[in-house]
Write a structure and sequence with these properties.
The chain contains 20 helices and 24 strands. With 763 residues, it is α+β, with helices and mostly antiparallel strands. Strands 3-2-1-6-5-4 form a 6-stranded antiparallel β-sheet, covered by helices on one side. Strands 8-7-12-11-10-9 form a 6-stranded antiparallel β-sheet. A 5-stranded mixed β-sheet has the order 14-16-17-19-18, with helices on one face. Helix 1 runs antiparallel to helix 6, helix 9 packs across helix 12 and helix 17 runs parallel beside helix 18. The radius of gyration is 36 Å and the shape is extended.
């Protein structure tokens, strides 16, 4: 082969390599840029979703204030406008509204509004009230000269008539107003170093409030400005606006005055506002952009080096071919084949790297979305007992001079706290439920007691909404072997949903019926029936899927994660039961849960014996006992000591595991009756301390009862305690009743009414 032909061949080969590499580079750059765009859009959605959620909570709190003040107004007899103004001033002073720039506002039937300073004039936003809505919220500029005000008005169910001189004033609406500047802290976004811009709009796009120092979107109508922007990545304002109308929120990317922006629009569910949120593109996913730049630089460098190397090697081959024509031709063919293989391998490796990067990005998006859903929605399962706690606290503050009522409230408060603790444990255990690793903590359970506690919680909720709540039970067996926490969680989720989705004044019925079963098992049907808003047939198919909620006007006002029924279904399946639902829109819902449990024959027998006349137990099982305790937390140690002493027992506190091991080494017979051992402690944990006491030189270590008292309440924690040599496991916070029941298991002789010496125990 002559040199001229070979040079042409080599030149063409080099050109093909360069073109191929450039093509791959452009394709990979386009693909990566597209991935980065969707990642930035996803990050924008995540950040703004949390900000919108916080704003919705603030607005909901304002509605709570309006509800409370309307209730106070109903309960306050007022005859004249002067009394009304004094009432407003006093209420504002007591509630410290001036500090938060909140002002109480009343509106009469003609649109004239009144504050604590008297009649202030006519509302320019009277159109909001023309259709006589029960609630209305808007942003007003007519209440003050220089400030935009959030206005929240609730229609009075019974108008209030006041005497003003010789005429009468009929108040139709009552509520609050507050400066929009109070929301500036919520409009700032640390994730973007406060480079974001926020506008409050009406639902037609007209500006109501500008939360920025500068006006980025100039003009009265923001929608007009957004529609004129140059959109990227195939998006458009028409597409964004259609999604806003369909879902209540939208996200897009466009250029304004030469600067690229990401923006979000969100219609607030509990206010007649729309929020516009803009962020310069350079502030969105900054680290991702840097990483992409580095990756593209590496790819470009690789392509350049590879091209130069290929050309240089070709030149060497040409020189070799000139010296040995025949031999060079064979070597060139061989090398060309090798380079083709290498190029194919490089392409394959690049494709694999791209696939790995895409999968990693997809996994990160899924993890980010799961985190967002969990953090924003986890309040669903803890809000019910927390509301009870808050309500009971308020009642107690108003009934300090009624000891009997205080005692009753304290009991309910304790019940609510225990339920809240159980729900928190369930939330922490959700990952175990989904992975199939969760097991049931089966223990003796008195079913009527469980149902009474549950009914107390639910009745507190129904009373707040003036709902009728009836309970019907038909039981033959009361003592069972079950997991009471899981059963409470199932029934609480269903009953709480019935309360939330049943209108004020509605009816809720809870029925428990024991079905026929053999002598060793009891089968129960738990039925919850309401006359609430019901569910559509389509939504019932996804009812038990995680994070699902029906999007209807009657449901949007009810907050929740959409996780409750998924947890309920998982627990019912774990317990070997079944759950079914019957519902129709506007006609109510009926849930039916069927579960069966082993009968606790021993507890049934004991219950029958207790029914016989016997001497009433007046002395605590803890009376006269001497405890050696390990507790590193000073406050917990003080509480434990006070509880034990209140029940006639004494104790010695050690602050860590090594200290209690050293103390027990010199213990003599009769000095201590039992050890209460914390598990997580400094220096030496409770598990190791228990092993050393059991295997130590003091022979009492092999017979003295040791009880674990720890916040670790999972089954594997209980198993570790047992393997270390502990006799029983009690969860924190300390429950004296549970401790007494546990002590009874190890105390052979009853507690003496007068200290009569040594008390013997069995292990």
């Amino acid at each position: 082969m002559n040199n001229k032909i070979y040079k042409k061949l080599l030149g063409g080969f080099g050109f093909a390599i360069v073109v191929s590499i450039l093509t791959l580079f452009v394709m990979s750059q386009t693909y990566i840029q597209n991935l980065v765009y969707h990642e930035r859009l996803s990050q924008m959605e995540e950040v703004t979703h949390q900000m919108f959620r916080n704003l919705e909570d603030v607005i909901e709190n304002h509605w709570d204030i309006v509800d409370v003040q309307c209730n106070y107004l109903y309960c306050t007899p007022l005859k004249t406008d002067a009394e009304f103004y004094r009432y407003l001033r006093k209420l504002s002073e007591l509630s410290n509204y001036q500090e938060s720039q909140i002002e109480l506002v009343a509106v009469d039937s003609s649109g004239r509004y009144y504050t604590e300073y008297g009649s202030m004039g006519l509302l320019r936003e009277m159109t909001y009230l023309e259709s006589a809505p029960e609630r209305v919220s808007y942003v007003s500029n007519s209440l003050t000269m220089n400030d935009s005000q959030m206005v929240f008005l609730e229609q009075l169910s019974t108008p209030i008539t006041l005497q003003s001189g010789e005429k009468e004033i009929t108040l139709r609406y009552f509520g609050i107003s507050q400066s929009m500047t109070q929301l500036n802290d919520y409009f700032r976004c640390d994730a973007y170093e406060n480079n974001n811009s926020v506008y409050v709009l009406d639902n037609d796009g007209f500006k109501l409030f500008n939360a920025n120092d500068t006006e980025l979107l100039k003009g009265h109508n923001v929608y007009t400005v957004l529609s004129r922007m140059s959109y990227l990545h195939g998006s458009s304002f028409a597409e964004a606006k259609e999604r806003l109308a369909r879902t209540g929120s939208c996200y897009s990317n466009a250029v304004l005055n030469g600067t690229e922006y990401f923006y979000a629009l969100k219609q607030m569910e509990n206010a007649q506002w729309t929020l516009a949120f803009l962020v310069p593109a350079e502030c969105v996913a900054v680290n991702t952009q840097k990483l992409v730049g580095i990756v593209m630089a590496i790819i470009a460098a690789f392509a350049t080096v590879f091209s130069i190397t290929a050309v240089f090697v070709g030149w060497l081959l040409l020189r070799e071919k000139q010296r040995q024509e025949l031999q060079a031709e064979k070597e060139a063919n061989l090398r060309l084949e090798q380079y083709n293989i290498q190029l194919t391998q490089a392409n394959d490796e690049m494709r694999r790297a791209q696939d790995i990067a895409a999968e990693a990005l997809h996994a990160a998006e899924r993890a980010s979305q799961a985190k967002t859903d969990f953090l924003s929605n986890m309040s669903h399962d803890i809000r019910t007992p927390m509301n009870a706690i808050v309500g009971l606290t308020t009642l107690m503050e108003n009934e300090l001079d009624q000891p009997e009522r205080l005692a009753e409230h304290l009991h309910k408060l304790e019940t609510s706290g225990q339920l809240l603790l159980g729900i928190i444990n369930d939330i922490l255990d959700m990952s175990r439920i989904e992975s199939g690793k969760t097991t049931l903590n089966v223990e003796p359970m008195h079913l009527p007691q469980q149902l009474d506690q549950l009914s107390t919680m639910i009745r507190a909720q129904t009373n707040e909404k003036a709902q009728t709540f009836t309970v019907s039970t038909h039981l033959r067996h009361e003592n069972l072997l079950a997991d009471p926490t899981r059963l409470n969680q199932v029934l609480m989720n269903i009953l709480s949903n019935a309360v939330k989705y049943t209108p004020r004044g509605g009816h809720i019925r809870f029925e428990v019926e024991e079905l026929p079963r053999n002598e060793h098992y009891a089968k129960y049907q738990f039925t919850v029936q309401d006359d609430g808003i019901g569910m559509s047939e389509a939504y019932q198919k996804t009812l038990f899927d995680p994070f699902t909620r029906e999007e209807r006007s009657g449901t949007n006002k009810v907050q929740g994660t959409g996780l409750g029924m998924a947890i309920t279904k998982s627990i019912v399946d774990l317990m070997g039961g079944s759950i079914s639902v019957e519902s129709a829109t506007g006609k109510g819902t009926r849930f039916e849960v069927v579960l069966e449990f082993p009968i606790d024959a021993e507890a049934d027998h004991a219950q029958k014996l207790q029914a016989l006349p016997e001497e009433e137990e007046t002395v605590s099982p803890l009376s006269g006992m001497k405890f050696l305790c390990a507790e590193d937390n000073a406050i917990n140690a003080e509480i434990l000591e006070m509880l034990l002493e209140a029940n006639g027992a004494s104790c010695t506190i050690c602050s860590n595991g090594q200290e209690i091991v050293n103390a027990f080494a010199n213990v003599k017979p009769g000095e201590y009756d039992m050890i209460l051992m914390d598990v997580q402690m400094p220096v030496m944990d409770g598990l190791e301390a228990t092993r050393r006491i059991r295997n130590g030189e003091n022979p009492l270590g092999r017979i003295i009862p040791i009880l674990a008292m720890t916040a670790n309440a999972f089954l594997e924690d209980m198993q570790k305690s047992k393997e270390a040599g502990m006799d029983a496991h009690l969860s924190k916070p300390v429950d004296i009743a549970a401790l007494e029941q546990t002590v009874k298991r190890f105390r052979v002789t009853p507690p003496p009414k007068i200290n009569s010496g040594i008390v013997r125990f069995r292990r």
